[in-house]
Amino acid sequence: MTKITKITKDIDTAVSEIKSGNTVALPTETVYGLGADALNENAVVKIFEAKERPRFNPLIVHVYDTDWFERYGTGIPEDVYRLAEKFSPGPITFIVKKKNIIPDIATAGNDTVGLRIPSHNMFREVIRLSGVPVCAPSANRSGMISPTSAEEVIKELNGKISFILDGGRCEVGIESTVIAFTEDEIKILRHGFITKEDIESVTGKKTSDYSGRIISPGLIKSHYAPETPLYLTENLDKLIKYIPDKTGILDFSGYGSPEEIAVNLYSELRKLDEGGYEKIIGEKIPDEGLGTAINDRLERASRGKAKLTDGKIILSDKENE
Ligand code: TXA
Ligand code: MG
Known about the structure:
CATH architecture of the largest domain: Alpha-Beta Complex
Radius of gyration: 20 Å
Number of strands: 17
Order of helices and strands: EHEEHEHEHEEHEHEEEHEEHEHEHEE
CATH superfamily of the largest domain: DHBP synthase
CATH class of the largest domain: Alpha Beta
Helix content: 25-40%
Structural class: alpha/beta
Number of helices: 10
Bound molecules: threonylcarbamoyladenylate, magnesium ion
Largest sheet: 10 strands, mixed
C-alpha cells in the first residue's frame, strides 16, 4: 500500500511509530536508517518489505548505551567494552552471540547479533523514549545508494513509510565499521569510519578482513550502487581528456581529506546518477586509514574498470574479468 511520506523533526512522532510496530526513517551519524522495534517480529518484517531486502541479510540492533549490551548479547568479549569506551556512541558495530529475546528474523537466523550505539542524539532519544532496541539498516532500497539526508531518504523510500525524522545531514557519511571476535583476532566484516588502526591501537590485537562464507551482505560484490554504471580507473588524470560525452566524472580532487570525501560520497554518486549520464567514471583514493572504507564502497558500487588503450577508453565489466 502506498503511504504519504512526511519529513518531521518531532521525536515523539518517531517514538510513537516505533511503539506501534511501524517502520520510521531515523538519522544517524553515518547514514539514515530505517528503524523498527527489534523485539517485534512483525515490525522487523516491515523493514525487509520496504527495502526489498533479502531475508538472509541480518540487521544491526541499535541500543542506548553499553548497559544494554548484556540484555541482547551474551559472552561479550572485554575488547567490546574497551572499544566502546573509546568509540561509542559512534560508527562501530560489534557482532556478538545473541540472546533469544532478539527474534531470529532480525539476525537472519544467525546466532549472533550486531550491536551499535549510534551517536546522533535524536536517534538515541528515540531509543531511550521507546525503551526498546531499534534495528535499522540503511534507509535505501536494497543494493542502492545509502541516504545521508532526509531528502535522500524520500528518493529511496517515498510511499513506503509514513515518517522520516529529520536530523540534518549525516556527519560521517558512510556506514559503521562492523567487527567480530575470535580468540586472538578481530575480524573486520565491513570497513567504516573507525579504521583498522583505531581498532588495533585500542585492543593491541591484529585485525584481518573477513573472507569466508558471506554472512555480511555489505560484503556482496555489488552494493551501494547507482543505476548508471560506474567504472573505476587508476589514473583519472590521464583519462580525463579522452572521456566521451554523456559521461559523468566522480572527482574528489576538490576535497581536502578522506573525511570530507566520506561525508559527500553518496550524495556525489546520487547527483551523478541523476545527471542523465550513460556512465560514470571515477577513481579510488589512497588505500590507507579511512581510504580503505571509501574504496570498498566504490568497488562495490562499480560495474567494472576503465582503462586507456591507444587513446581510447576501454570499459570492462566485472563479471567478464
Ligand atoms: O552505520 C550503519 O551501520 C547503518 C546505520 C543505519 O546504523 N546501518 C547499516 O545497516 O549500514 P545495513 O543493514 O545496511 O548494514 C549492516 C551490515 C550488513 O552488511 C549486515 O550483513 C551486517 O551489518 N550484519 C548485521 N548483523 C550481522 C550479524 N549478526 N552477523 C554478520 N553480519 C551482520
Ligand atoms: Mg546498507
